[in-house]
Automatic annotation (TrEMBL):
Pfam families: Acetyltransf_10. This is Acetyltransferase. One of its GO terms (molecular function) is acyltransferase activity, transferring groups other than amino-acyl groups. It comes from Catenovulum maritimum. Gene3D superfamilies: 3.40.630.30. InterPro entries: Acyl_CoA_acyltransferase, GNAT_dom, N-acetyltrans/Recomb-assoc. The lineage of its organism: Bacteria, Pseudomonadati, Pseudomonadota, Gammaproteobacteria, Alteromonadales. Residues 1-147 form the N-acetyltransferase domain. The keyword Transferase applies. The keyword Signal does not apply.
Amino acid sequence: MHIRAAKTNDVVKISELVTSLSHFYLTKSENELPEWFAQTLTHSAFLKRLESHEYSNFIYELDGEIIGYLAMKGNSHLFHLFVSEKHQGKGLSRALWEFATSVCISNTYTLRSSIYAIPVYRKFGFIESDTAGEKDGISFQPMELRV
């Protein structure tokens, strides 16, 4: 298992991984993703971010399978962090985070966490930086980490 920069030929697997976990953003898990959110998870949306100089994209691979994905926007905004359900709780999120912050160096990091992931980010040292929000059934918590 290892962490590496994501490549354009990883797009399909990354999209499948993130889409399989996107229900964690929903206020009610039985609801459908709003169209605007679903559009951010398409192959073309991931390809656009992978090809953009504005984003740094990393994957965690195990036996050729992508089991984790992290995207940073600029050096300071954690845009995506997803680990497959069967591999959660094993430290992969932390490993991806530590790898990303060794490359994307900043004094302050920000993110908009799913409500589900708040405990993970608190363990990294993030704190809530504003009140939780909700848009079209997607709940999120702004968070910040000062280093």
